[in-house]
Amino acid sequence: VFFPEIALNPTSGKPGTKVTVSATNFPGGAVVDQFRFAGSTMPLPSTTADSNGAFTLVFNVPTTLISGFYRVEVGATKSGPPIIPAFVAKPFNVTAADVSFTMTAQDDSHR
């Protein structure tokens, strides 16, 4: 029985942020065949889990995204028999790009 897990570093960031996905507890030797972020398939280099079921993926948050939570999805399959699929997802919080503003107050009591 496998209980795959991924850790994101960082867990939030602005568009353009580089994110490292550290996977653990996947089946040893499983080939990573799914890598999605915010509903889009991400470029996936040839990646295989080591004998302990660990691997690392890296991506940049697309610059077109607005603030909000988006899923990072990773799947891998170990050929069999038996064939063993594994899948896990985690949220990533896209924060607003640097925004600055100035607020001024005016006393309207003398009108």
Give a structural overview.
There is one protein chain. This protein is an all-beta fold. Helix content is 0%, strand content 46%. The protein has no helices and eight strands. The strands form two sheets. A five-stranded mixed sheet has the order 2-8-7-4-5, with no helix packed on it.
Task: Note the overall shape.
Answer: elongated
Beta-strand fraction estimate: over 45%
Strand order of the largest sheet: 2-8-7-4-5
- Helix vs. strand class: mainly beta
Number of helices: 0
Q: Which short descriptors sum up this protein?
A:
111 residues; mainly beta; five-stranded mixed β-sheet; three-stranded antiparallel β-sheet; elongated
Give the SSE map.
Elements lengths: L4 E5 L2 E2 L4 E7 L6 E7 L2 E2 L13 E6 L7 E11 L5 E11 L17
Quick structural overview:
The chain has strands at 5-9, 12-13, 18-24, 31-37, 40-41, 55-60, 68-78, 84-94.
